[in-house]
Amino acid sequence: MSEKVDTITSKAEPAAPSKHSSKEGSIQDGVDIVLPEGVDIALGWFEEMRTIPPGELEAESKAVRRRCDLILMPVICFTYAMQFLDNSVLGYAYAYQLLPDTHMTPGDYNWLASIYYFGYLFWAYPSTLLLQKLPVATYTTSLIFTWGFLTLMCCVANSFAGFAVLRFLLGCLEVGITPTMMIITSSFYKREETPIRNSFWQSSFGSGVVMLSIVSYGLGNSHSSVSNWKLVFLFVGAVTTVWAAVFWWLVPNTPTEARWLTRRQKLVVIHRISTNKIGIQDKKLKPHQIKEALTDPKLWLLTAFQITNGISNSSVSSFASPLIEGFGFSDLDTVLLQMPTGAFVAVIEPILGYIATKIPNTIIYISIAANIPNVAGLFGIRFIDRTPGNKWALLGCTWLQFIFGVTNLFSWTLTASNFAGHTKRSFVNAVIFAAFGVGNLIGPHIFFPREAPVYKSAITGLLVCFGLSVSLHLLH
């Protein structure tokens, strides 16, 4: 090992001080490492772990992993689902006459869909610096609470300017969620265990779509004096704000702070992730790791891919409602008929993640295969005649678009697994999420209001994006 090895720090349960008074310590027999300032506590955890026979640690590994699966993964899944819903709730509000009530135009809606990603881009790098300096779970809790409050504030916005400010701030906050979820996951699981778990929490937005579709349909039938679109914002914002407290209680900053693990189980977790050799946590910024990342071709391939994927993402999430409504469905039907898209994602993405876990070196091929339904669906939307008899076929083609999310998931998995060092991984995450933000910013503006509800140019542009996505995967 070298001094680039990242370490765990813990304030919750100090371990026994290291017997080394200098910065040098031994983690493996016969191997010396030079540790940065302030890691004697972490070294103490490693030293204590080394007093336990490896066979015993391995024997307890599966039980500890199951405990993490039962407690940690549901929390991560629900958090990611709420982050997606707080962003996509705008599309449901569109179906409930948001534009007429607020005197906005379809062009204003395009900007509301994209201005979120101006905030995303603006705060991507500061978020990375904060994530480097602040405890990951504490930082994430503050993000969840604040974005929930801002979603509630959408109920009192009555103009484009008010919504634009709120959407910008939401983008600033939510840019940090996916990187934190990836860091937390990689802090509890072995490298080979992360693809399927990343696929589970990535696909959880599908379950969120199902939930929001049902709730929004119910709210649309409430006959309340409050506008239906305001009720949707109220529900999502209130749930998110309350969830912040649950997240704070259950998710630790490091494995050594987990309330739901015994000290012995914490040592087992440290043993498990020590085999990753990609580091755990080190709050010191290391410029040499940033330089290494900038010279790595994989970074630029992932960046180009994320731009094309971002265009597809914002197009699908923001314009599902306008497309479905344009096929000839009512407002209430438009909301309810988005439910199957979530079900597709919730079922298909974990299956593909499981395959990627069980069959090594298949991520690229699975990602390419996942683009086939998207392309088929786009061809259908582009060339099937817009007649009342064809609206269900057109709807089915729209449902196919949501499967593309697995390609985005796998690109994040490649980042977490193939870049060593906490600073490098954080920097690479910031770059590819910024690229994702650029693509998302572009996406809504290929839907020209004058082409509504057919959007021929947008559908053609999405076909090009998926073609580029396949090409970039082949080059990886």
From TrEMBL:
UniProt keyword Ribosomal protein, yes or no: no
GO MF annotations in UniProt: transmembrane transporter activity
One cellular component term from this protein's GO annotations in UniProt: membrane
Origin superkingdom: Eukaryota
UniProt membrane topology term: Multi-pass membrane protein
Keywords: Membrane, Transmembrane, Transmembrane helix, Transport
Keyword Transmembrane: yes
Subcellular location(s) per record: Membrane
Membrane-spanning parts: 70-94, 114-131, 143-170, 200-219, 231-251, 335-356, 363-381, 393-415, 427-448, 454-475
Region of interest (Disordered), residue spans: 1-26
Protein name: Major facilitator superfamily (MFS) profile domain-containing protein
Native species: Capronia coronata CBS 617.96
